[in-house]
Each structure stands twice: as structure tokens, then as C-alpha cells.
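Incident log, structure service

09:12 report received: a user says their structure output differs between two submissions of the same chain.
09:20 pulled the input from the user's history:
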Amino acid sequence: MSSISATVKNGEIITSASQDSLSTKSSESNSGMDKDAFLQLLVAQMKYQDPLEPTSNTEYISQYAQFSQVEALNNMSTTMELSRYSSYVGKEVVIESTDSSGKSTQTRGFVDYVTFEEGKAYFSIEGNLYKAEDMVTVISNEYSNAEDIAEQFAKTIKDLPGVDSINVSNHGNTITNLYNLYNSIGDYEKGFLDDDDVKAMNSYVAKLNELLVQLANEAAKEQEEKAAAQAENEKTAEETAPAGNETTEDNTAASEDDTALAENAAAQGAVTPEED
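09:34 re-ran on a clean worker, output below:
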């Protein structure tokens, strides 16, 4: 049987709603009829019966049989109750508890395990026990996921600066991811989003697109300027190329003339400078 710790402050025990709930239920259970109480009543009945008209053994057996049937039904009910509440393990629930002062509080969390105290089922949520019969809501995974998405969406919008203060390098990925998240969820999840947050997202997306177009135009202009400069350089090179070729052709012609003279001189028996 599990136990519940209590907090001591200034010499007094501070009880939670779950602890008050357990103590109240324990008091109620002690006032009920169990097997020991029945046997005590049976012994008292036998002890103080009228000796002139004693209760027959058959009647005692009949009473005990009836009690045994009731006890068997109670045990069966307890087993079914445990099986039913065990199905909530791992699920998110909302518990509405009432403390000793009559104040009602709601606790939301995932059920870690189910235990029994005095024949009643209790949920363990974040280390505290709550009466299973006080459960008022069971939250589905879809509902919980939709809430998480809405919370994440709202936090992202809140963390962004004003629309006119964003830039592509610092906020482009954040806004793009937010927009992709919005388009990836269904209508059910979108129903959890705040309308103002959706409007803000659209404003950020529009501003980001404006900045991207501006950057694209600047890049295209820069590319055009580079292409124009390259074309100008190529034109200048072409204009200066003929003068250089003329000199080369002249040198080539002179070289050819010198070769012809040398060959002619050799044919006539002249001595060339290389042979001196």
C-alpha cells in the first residue's frame, strides 16, 4: 500500500487536496461494514441471544452465506474498478478535488499508476494521489498535441520583434518554419490557434517576402554590373590587339627577309657572321 508524504511548516502539517481526500475517504471506509465487523456482530449475537429461544445454527449459516455473497460481489466490483481505472495509465486527465475547507481545485496531468487505498482507486499524478472517482475529464492525445502546437505557435510569435524590425539573416528561418508548421497541421489543430497570432504570422510572411524580393533585385543588379564590366574589359582587349599583331607581323617579315638573304649569300659562297 502506497504512502503519501506531508510538508511540515512552522510545526504544522500542510496537507494537499489529495491528502485531505485520502484521509476523508479513510474515515468513511472505517465506518463501513467489513468481514471483521460482521464476525464481531455474529459473536455478540450468539453471546447475548435469548437462551430460551436460541438462534438456530441454520440461521447463522444462512447469515454468513449471505455476507459471503455480498463480500464476493464487492471483491468482483473492486477488481472491475481496478481494471477500468488502469486503462487510464499514461493518459492525461483532469481531477477536481475538494479540500477540508470545501475549496475545489483542478489538477491536470498524466496518470503514472493506479493504486488502491481502503478499497478505492487512486491516480498517481506527479507524485500525488487523487481519487479516481474525482476525475472529470480525459484528454486525448490529439487534443493535447493541438494545445502544444498552439502554445509553441504563440511563443514563436511573441519572441519575434516588430514586423518592421525583422531581417532575413536573423529571422528568415524562424518565420519560414512557422509558416511551414501552419501549413502542415489540419483544421482541428488550426482551431486551437489564436486569430491574432495567425494574422501576425501573415504580416511577418509578407514582410519577409518583401525583403527577399529586395535582396534578389540587388543581387541581379550586382550581377548585371559585373557582366557589363567584364564586357568592357573584353572590348578594350580587342581594341589593343591589332597594334600588337602588326609588330609581330613586321618582325616575322624581317625574319623571313634575313633568312632569304642568308640563303642567297650561301648559294653565292658568301661567309655568314656565324661562321667567322
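09:41 both user submissions now match this output. Likely a transient worker issue. Closing.
09:42 reviewer note: Residues 142-234 form one domain. The beta strands are 7-9, 12-14, 92-98, 104-110, 113-117, 120-125, 128-131, 135-139.
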